[in-house]
Amino acid sequence: MSDTKARRAATVQQVSATLRSPAALIAAGLAPPAAVETLAAVAERFAVAVPPALAALIDPADPADPIARQFIPSALELAVAPEELADPIGDDAFSPLKGVVHRYPDRVLLKPVLVCPVYCRFCFRREQVGEGALSPAETLAALSYVAARPELREVILTGGDPLMLAPRRLAALMRGIGAIPHVELVRVHTRLPIAAPERVTPALARALKASGRATWLAVHVNHPRELSVAATAALGRLADAGLPLLSQTVLLKGVNDDAATLEALFRALIRHRVRPYYLHHPDRARGTAHFRPSLAEGRALMRALRGRLSGIAQPTYVLDIPGGAGKVPVGPDYWDETAGQVADRDGNRHRY
Ligand SMILES: *Cc1c(COP(=O)(O)O)cnc(C)c1O
Ligand code: SF4
Fold first, then answer.
1. Distance from residue 337's CA to the centre of ligand 1 (Å)
2. Which atom of ligand 2 lies at the shortest distance from residue 158's CA?
3. Which of 34, 59, 115, 344 is 20 to 30 A from 26 in CA distance terms?
4. Per-residue pLDDT tens digits for 308-350
5. Which ligand is nearest to the CA of 221?
């Protein structure tokens, strides 16, 4: 056995529970002992959790490992850039009551829990996530808010990760949403099939369908290596249960900011019946500057993918405008209105 393989086997063996502290990460060989004090300072500000399924994907011998970069805390998080915000997409300004964010006329976010199976180091809600759930009274108030507004056609469960709710509680929430006549569909944003695929059980799939409404799942996944055998099996169970699957990917420097990695990710997703939905430009959350490419880089990557990848594997590249103005596509553009010209996928311009 090579040295790397021996170290990796040792790591996987030790990680049988979610790692929640710098000491636990160091004991598992996933962080250097010398970093203990710095990482403690990071962990004090931002929640830490690395579940066994993701710890097993990390190659501790690779200092640029794209899985480790997403989930292992780093001293870089202590550097706050002047443009960074505690509430980067302006959720607070659009929150009429606890657990509800209402920015668009036809749809509303409901955040039943703020816990996640893993804490991503670039999280846009990193100063909210970690602990907390709506009480039964707060959940009822949120549902009453939706029930009182017939223009709301879609309820989007997010958080935190709503699939951290026990299936029984999730089913009760789904039934509450399904009792509102004007709600046409429910969307659930989750990282659970990637971070804890063993928790995607038949009971969970049944709970997801308990509203009786069309229920779409949007799975957060950023790198093709996250699509492990266990994760793809979990996605298969959800697809077989009749749940349409979308993906959301955050464009992250040093993780997936090259065309080959994005191509491999989006190809794998369509193979596993997941339709790439959004490629998010990273939000300006505090201590995340090391993850942010430029918009120009993101647009160039999307242009490169247009030439080489099936149309059903192309997500929309979006920016959530800081402050709360909402999400908009940020290109690339192919049509030049002034010149009356359209560019093809190789950049050649044609009159139209
Ligand atoms: C992102 C977001 C949505 C969902 O937007 P879509 O473009 O429909 O995916 C809805 N409400 C709020 C407040 C959001 O931030
Ligand atoms: S799963 Fe989503 S909400 Fe949870 S830490 Fe990651 S990015 Fe944030």
1. 29
2. 3
3. 115
4. 899 999 999 999 999 999 999 999 999 999 999 999 999 999 9
5. 2
